Amino acid sequence: MTPASGEQDARSPLAPTASRAIGENGRVGDSTADGLLERTLRVLGCFSEDEPELGATRLAERTGLSPSTLHRLLARMVELGLLTRVPGRRYAVGRRLFELGELSPLALRLRETALPHMLRIYEATGENVHLAVLDAPSPGEASALFVGRVTGHGSVPTLSRMGGRLALHAVGVGKALLALQSDDWIREYCAHGLERETVHTITEETALLADVEATRARGYAYAREEMTLGNVSIAAALGSVPGLPRAAVGVVSHIDRADERRLAGLVRQAASELSRALRA
Asked: Which of 139, 201, 253, 276 is the most buried (most CB within 10 A)?
Protein backbone atom coordinates (compact mmCIF):
# COMPACT_ATOMS: atom_id res chain seq x y z
CA MET A 1 0.00 0.00 0.00
CA THR A 2 2.60 2.46 -1.09
CA PRO A 3 2.07 4.97 -3.85
CA ALA A 4 4.65 6.36 -6.17
CA SER A 5 3.36 9.85 -6.91
CA GLY A 6 5.21 12.82 -5.44
CA GLU A 7 6.11 16.43 -5.08
CA GLN A 8 9.50 17.99 -4.37
CA ASP A 9 10.63 20.03 -1.39
CA ALA A 10 12.95 23.03 -1.44
CA ARG A 11 16.04 20.80 -1.27
CA SER A 12 14.91 18.45 -4.03
CA PRO A 13 17.69 17.01 -6.22
CA LEU A 14 15.38 17.73 -9.14
CA ALA A 15 16.33 21.40 -8.87
CA PRO A 16 20.13 21.66 -9.39
CA THR A 17 21.89 24.96 -9.88
CA ALA A 18 22.77 26.25 -13.31
CA SER A 19 26.48 25.77 -12.57
CA ARG A 20 25.92 22.02 -12.41
CA ALA A 21 23.78 21.77 -15.56
CA ILE A 22 24.82 19.31 -18.23
CA GLY A 23 24.66 20.53 -21.82
CA GLU A 24 23.69 18.56 -24.92
CA ASN A 25 27.39 18.51 -25.87
CA GLY A 26 28.16 16.66 -22.66
CA ARG A 27 29.92 19.51 -20.82
CA VAL A 28 28.95 20.53 -17.31
CA GLY A 29 27.94 24.13 -16.77
CA ASP A 30 26.75 25.20 -20.23
CA SER A 31 23.00 24.79 -19.82
CA THR A 32 20.27 26.18 -17.59
CA ALA A 33 18.83 24.40 -14.60
CA ASP A 34 15.51 24.24 -16.42
CA GLY A 35 17.16 22.40 -19.31
CA LEU A 36 18.67 19.84 -16.96
CA LEU A 37 15.36 19.38 -15.20
CA GLU A 38 13.62 18.77 -18.51
CA ARG A 39 16.18 16.14 -19.51
CA THR A 40 15.94 14.50 -16.09
CA LEU A 41 12.18 14.23 -16.44
CA ARG A 42 12.58 12.85 -19.97
CA VAL A 43 14.70 10.04 -18.53
CA LEU A 44 12.28 9.33 -15.70
CA GLY A 45 9.36 9.36 -18.12
CA CYS A 46 10.85 6.39 -19.96
CA PHE A 47 10.07 4.01 -17.10
CA SER A 48 6.68 2.31 -16.92
CA GLU A 49 4.86 -0.61 -15.35
CA ASP A 50 5.75 -2.72 -18.39
CA GLU A 51 9.39 -1.59 -18.36
CA PRO A 52 10.46 -0.72 -14.80
CA GLU A 53 14.12 -1.39 -15.69
CA LEU A 54 15.91 0.05 -18.71
CA GLY A 55 19.43 0.02 -20.10
CA ALA A 56 21.35 3.05 -21.35
CA THR A 57 20.82 2.14 -25.01
CA ARG A 58 17.06 2.05 -24.59
CA LEU A 59 17.10 5.30 -22.65
CA ALA A 60 19.14 7.00 -25.36
CA GLU A 61 16.67 5.87 -28.01
CA ARG A 62 13.71 7.19 -26.07
CA THR A 63 15.14 10.48 -24.86
CA GLY A 64 17.12 11.42 -27.96
CA LEU A 65 20.06 12.44 -25.75
CA SER A 66 23.59 11.91 -26.96
CA PRO A 67 25.47 9.00 -25.33
CA SER A 68 27.92 11.29 -23.56
CA THR A 69 25.18 13.57 -22.17
CA LEU A 70 23.09 10.61 -21.10
CA HIS A 71 26.05 8.91 -19.41
CA ARG A 72 26.79 12.00 -17.32
CA LEU A 73 23.13 12.53 -16.51
CA LEU A 74 22.56 8.93 -15.45
CA ALA A 75 25.62 8.99 -13.20
CA ARG A 76 24.38 12.16 -11.51
CA MET A 77 20.85 10.78 -11.11
CA VAL A 78 22.24 7.63 -9.47
CA GLU A 79 24.38 9.77 -7.17
CA LEU A 80 21.29 11.76 -6.12
CA GLY A 81 19.15 8.66 -5.59
CA LEU A 82 16.78 9.43 -8.47
CA LEU A 83 17.87 6.22 -10.19
CA THR A 84 19.43 3.02 -8.96
CA ARG A 85 21.54 0.47 -10.84
CA VAL A 86 20.13 -3.05 -11.11
CA PRO A 87 21.63 -6.28 -12.52
CA GLY A 88 22.06 -6.49 -16.26
CA ARG A 89 23.55 -2.96 -16.58
CA ARG A 90 20.10 -1.48 -16.22
CA TYR A 91 18.55 1.35 -14.24
CA ALA A 92 15.37 1.63 -12.16
CA VAL A 93 13.60 4.44 -10.32
CA GLY A 94 15.52 5.26 -7.13
CA ARG A 95 14.67 5.46 -3.46
CA ARG A 96 14.74 9.27 -3.35
CA LEU A 97 11.71 9.45 -5.63
CA PHE A 98 9.89 7.03 -3.34
CA GLU A 99 10.70 9.27 -0.37
CA LEU A 100 9.51 12.37 -2.21
CA GLY A 101 6.34 10.60 -3.35
CA GLU A 102 5.42 9.86 0.23
CA LEU A 103 5.36 13.62 0.90
CA SER A 104 2.57 14.21 -1.61
CA PRO A 105 -0.85 15.20 -0.16
CA LEU A 106 -2.17 12.16 -2.03
CA ALA A 107 -0.10 10.02 0.34
CA LEU A 108 0.26 12.00 3.57
CA ARG A 109 -3.27 13.35 3.65
CA LEU A 110 -5.62 11.39 1.38
CA ARG A 111 -4.27 7.85 1.47
CA GLU A 112 -3.30 7.79 5.14
CA THR A 113 -6.70 9.13 6.20
CA ALA A 114 -8.47 6.72 3.85
CA LEU A 115 -6.72 3.50 4.92
CA PRO A 116 -8.85 2.78 8.03
CA HIS A 117 -12.02 3.27 5.99
CA MET A 118 -10.70 1.05 3.20
CA LEU A 119 -9.69 -1.63 5.69
CA ARG A 120 -13.22 -1.71 7.09
CA ILE A 121 -14.58 -2.45 3.63
CA TYR A 122 -11.96 -5.14 3.11
CA GLU A 123 -12.67 -6.75 6.49
CA ALA A 124 -16.37 -6.83 5.64
CA THR A 125 -15.91 -8.27 2.15
CA GLY A 126 -12.44 -9.74 1.64
CA GLU A 127 -12.43 -7.97 -1.73
CA ASN A 128 -10.13 -5.47 -3.44
CA VAL A 129 -10.67 -1.91 -2.23
CA HIS A 130 -9.42 0.99 -4.34
CA LEU A 131 -8.90 4.70 -3.84
CA ALA A 132 -8.48 6.79 -7.00
CA VAL A 133 -8.34 10.46 -7.92
CA LEU A 134 -9.24 12.31 -11.09
CA ASP A 135 -6.09 13.27 -12.95
CA ALA A 136 -7.40 15.60 -15.62
CA PRO A 137 -5.14 18.24 -17.15
CA SER A 138 -7.91 18.24 -19.78
CA PRO A 139 -10.87 15.95 -20.59
CA GLY A 140 -8.87 14.35 -23.38
CA GLU A 141 -6.05 13.41 -21.00
CA ALA A 142 -8.21 12.47 -18.01
CA SER A 143 -7.78 9.15 -16.21
CA ALA A 144 -8.30 7.51 -12.85
CA LEU A 145 -5.03 7.56 -10.90
CA PHE A 146 -4.91 4.85 -8.22
CA VAL A 147 -3.44 6.15 -4.96
CA GLY A 148 -4.59 3.49 -2.48
CA ARG A 149 -5.27 -0.24 -2.58
CA VAL A 150 -6.13 -2.95 -0.07
CA THR A 151 -6.22 -6.55 -1.24
CA GLY A 152 -5.80 -10.10 0.03
CA HIS A 153 -5.28 -13.71 -1.02
CA GLY A 154 -8.98 -14.25 -1.62
CA SER A 155 -9.50 -11.08 -3.65
CA VAL A 156 -10.14 -11.36 -7.37
CA PRO A 157 -7.25 -10.40 -9.70
CA THR A 158 -7.45 -6.85 -11.05
CA LEU A 159 -5.44 -4.67 -13.44
CA SER A 160 -5.08 -1.80 -10.99
CA ARG A 161 -1.86 -1.00 -9.15
CA MET A 162 -0.58 1.76 -6.90
CA GLY A 163 0.35 4.72 -9.05
CA GLY A 164 -1.31 3.17 -12.09
CA ARG A 165 -3.98 4.67 -14.31
CA LEU A 166 -7.11 3.22 -15.89
CA ALA A 167 -9.75 4.62 -18.21
CA LEU A 168 -12.49 6.58 -16.43
CA HIS A 169 -15.32 5.01 -18.44
CA ALA A 170 -14.34 1.39 -17.75
CA VAL A 171 -13.95 1.14 -13.95
CA GLY A 172 -16.19 1.89 -10.98
CA VAL A 173 -14.01 4.59 -9.41
CA GLY A 174 -13.61 6.21 -12.82
CA LYS A 175 -17.35 6.28 -13.46
CA ALA A 176 -17.92 7.78 -10.02
CA LEU A 177 -15.45 10.54 -10.92
CA LEU A 178 -17.06 11.07 -14.31
CA ALA A 179 -20.42 11.62 -12.62
CA LEU A 180 -18.96 14.70 -10.90
CA GLN A 181 -18.27 16.38 -14.23
CA SER A 182 -20.65 18.34 -16.44
CA ASP A 183 -22.21 16.69 -19.48
CA ASP A 184 -20.20 19.03 -21.72
CA TRP A 185 -16.98 17.90 -20.02
CA ILE A 186 -17.98 14.27 -20.57
CA ARG A 187 -18.77 14.93 -24.23
CA GLU A 188 -15.31 16.36 -24.70
CA TYR A 189 -13.86 13.31 -22.95
CA CYS A 190 -15.80 11.07 -25.34
CA ALA A 191 -14.66 13.07 -28.36
CA HIS A 192 -11.15 11.71 -27.83
CA GLY A 193 -12.39 8.13 -28.14
CA LEU A 194 -13.61 5.54 -25.65
CA GLU A 195 -11.23 2.62 -25.72
CA ARG A 196 -12.83 -0.81 -25.53
CA GLU A 197 -11.29 -2.90 -22.73
CA THR A 198 -13.76 -5.81 -22.96
CA VAL A 199 -16.87 -6.61 -25.00
CA HIS A 200 -18.90 -4.92 -22.23
CA THR A 201 -17.05 -1.59 -22.17
CA ILE A 202 -19.21 1.42 -23.05
CA THR A 203 -17.77 3.02 -26.18
CA GLU A 204 -20.55 5.38 -27.31
CA GLU A 205 -21.16 8.89 -25.97
CA THR A 206 -24.94 8.51 -25.63
CA ALA A 207 -24.61 5.28 -23.67
CA LEU A 208 -21.95 6.74 -21.37
CA LEU A 209 -24.02 9.84 -20.63
CA ALA A 210 -26.98 7.61 -19.75
CA ASP A 211 -24.76 5.51 -17.50
CA VAL A 212 -23.43 8.65 -15.78
CA GLU A 213 -26.98 9.89 -15.21
CA ALA A 214 -27.86 6.55 -13.59
CA THR A 215 -24.79 6.87 -11.37
CA ARG A 216 -25.89 10.32 -10.21
CA ALA A 217 -29.42 9.11 -9.51
CA ARG A 218 -28.49 6.10 -7.36
CA GLY A 219 -25.46 7.66 -5.65
CA TYR A 220 -22.84 5.14 -6.73
CA ALA A 221 -21.17 3.86 -9.90
CA TYR A 222 -21.42 0.33 -11.23
CA ALA A 223 -19.11 -1.31 -13.78
CA ARG A 224 -19.94 -4.85 -14.85
CA GLU A 225 -17.13 -6.71 -16.65
CA GLU A 226 -16.07 -3.48 -18.37
CA MET A 227 -12.37 -3.65 -17.48
CA THR A 228 -11.95 -7.33 -16.61
CA LEU A 229 -14.29 -10.15 -17.57
CA GLY A 230 -15.90 -11.73 -14.51
CA ASN A 231 -15.39 -8.70 -12.26
CA VAL A 232 -17.85 -6.15 -10.92
CA SER A 233 -16.76 -2.75 -9.59
CA ILE A 234 -18.89 -0.52 -7.36
CA ALA A 235 -17.68 2.92 -6.24
CA ALA A 236 -18.75 6.21 -4.70
CA ALA A 237 -17.17 9.65 -4.99
CA LEU A 238 -15.94 11.64 -2.01
CA GLY A 239 -17.14 15.15 -1.42
CA SER A 240 -15.00 18.08 -2.45
CA VAL A 241 -11.98 18.59 -0.15
CA PRO A 242 -9.85 21.76 -0.38
CA GLY A 243 -6.32 21.04 -1.56
CA LEU A 244 -7.09 17.61 -2.98
CA PRO A 245 -8.33 16.41 -6.38
CA ARG A 246 -11.73 14.73 -6.60
CA ALA A 247 -11.50 11.18 -5.35
CA ALA A 248 -13.55 7.98 -5.22
CA VAL A 249 -13.44 4.77 -3.22
CA GLY A 250 -14.53 1.46 -4.70
CA VAL A 251 -14.63 -2.29 -4.29
CA VAL A 252 -14.07 -5.00 -6.92
CA SER A 253 -15.66 -8.43 -6.59
CA HIS A 254 -16.27 -11.48 -8.75
CA ILE A 255 -19.59 -11.30 -10.53
CA ASP A 256 -20.83 -14.55 -8.95
CA ARG A 257 -20.52 -13.26 -5.40
CA ALA A 258 -21.11 -9.53 -5.81
CA ASP A 259 -24.01 -8.29 -3.68
CA GLU A 260 -24.58 -4.90 -5.32
CA ARG A 261 -26.83 -3.49 -2.62
CA ARG A 262 -24.49 -4.45 0.21
CA LEU A 263 -21.31 -3.33 -1.53
CA ALA A 264 -22.90 -0.04 -2.57
CA GLY A 265 -23.88 0.65 1.02
CA LEU A 266 -20.34 0.00 2.21
CA VAL A 267 -18.63 2.26 -0.32
CA ARG A 268 -21.16 5.06 0.09
CA GLN A 269 -20.71 5.00 3.85
CA ALA A 270 -16.91 4.97 3.50
CA ALA A 271 -16.99 7.87 1.03
CA SER A 272 -19.18 9.94 3.32
CA GLU A 273 -17.16 9.25 6.46
CA LEU A 274 -13.85 9.77 4.69
CA SER A 275 -15.01 13.09 3.27
CA ARG A 276 -15.87 14.31 6.77
CA ALA A 277 -12.54 13.09 8.15
CA LEU A 278 -10.58 14.92 5.46
CA ARG A 279 -12.44 18.16 6.10
CA ALA A 280 -11.95 17.99 9.88
From this structure: 253
